[in-house]
Amino acid sequence: MTTVHPRSRPRRRSPGWVPNQHGAWAMLAAPLFVGTVASGPTWVHLPLAAFWFTGYFAFFATGLWLKARRRDRWFPPVRVYVPAALALGLVVLAVQPELVRWAPAFVLPLGVGLVAAAQRHERDLVAGLTTVTASGLIAVVAYDAGTGPGGSLDRGWLLAAIQFAYFAGTVFYVKSAIRERGNPGFLRLSVGVHLATTLAMGAVSPWLVGVFALLTLRAAVLPGRGLTPGRIGVIEVVATVVVSTVSLLVV
């Protein structure tokens, strides 16, 4: 019988290379897509999309590294993604320098998210809502990129607000279905948030009122029914597509 020397075993790949928060993919893609389509796709949207996704990879990897008390094993993805994101950001600014004005708006959400990760509170409600804030902002950034300097951003802001309202609701809904399952107080809070956003959509379109009413119904009925995270994710993919499509049609 042969033995394998410990040094001959392949080293495990350091963690953090691929984000494992599957719900984040919708929050990354949908607002960017909505803002891009609403303003009309241009060449700048290509490096903007690459920067946005690479930036999230850098944010995720850095958060894990901080959560792991800056251990060396967790640092390689940070060393790769952070410079890559910075380089792509410079490409975006080379194509459309005016977009630099949006950088300060992301400082607070980024800072709150990293501090929460360092304190191992990245799944807290505040951290989730700040992430959603950054997600909503990219919709108006993408809209601005397509509209160009001097263009009105009213439609972009409204689309961003709709995206924020939807994804903020999902933060409450998913927590009520998983981490806060069986907590009636949190369930009432989640339903209340959904009712408020449904009423707010009355100022935009009756179609959106109908969509958000259905979201409120799912927030009230589905938690406590034993849905797996996978099934919750599938439902939210469908909801994301519906919200994004209807908002593009009526706004």
From TrEMBL:
The keyword Glycoprotein does not apply. Pfam families: YwiC. Keywords: Membrane, Transmembrane, Transmembrane helix. The chain crosses the membrane at residues 49-66, 78-96, 102-118, 125-143, 155-174, 186-212, 232-250. This is YwiC-like family protein. It comes from Nocardioides malaquae.
